[in-house]
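Same chain as my last thread, 180 residues:
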Amino acid sequence: MDSLNVFIKGACLPPELSQRMRNYVRFRRYTEDVHMRHDMLRLLSPSLSAEVALHLNAEWMAKVPYFGGCPEMMAVKLAFVLRSESYPPEECFIAADAAVTKLCLIAKGIVTAKGKVLTAGMVVGEEMLVGRVGRVAGYTARTMTYVDVVVLVREDLDNTLAEFPEARRCHVKPCCCNPC
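reply #2:
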């Protein structure tokens, strides 16, 4: 926080903007926890890290029908490519006129999307899982509070599916082959 205050003072930022920056940095501590989890998983043996990764991600993956029946090792691989993002209140993170390129699990906070209020444990951006690459959202996902999301990026999903062709054929619908 000291370096942030030095930056704010050096940049001569107005008080309201300075306070918003401080609030955001305080909130981002969750994101640092996610990075610590990934670092910890890398320190463990392969089988232990796989077991822990499955435990940490089983609940949200069960909420996404697309992942039903996916091989256990694929779930482990997906756990290692997840990213975390944090947003301040009133920020759009999926635009109605933009391609949906990420699946977002809301870890903390409140989001509005598709005329609904979404909270921790809910998912937004499922459109990236089916249909053609570049599919437009058709809705806006906007934060109402500070929000942390766990993100699966389309490219990471496609790379993981390339390692599990049986999942692409049998269990998981291909991302790029279903015409919309």
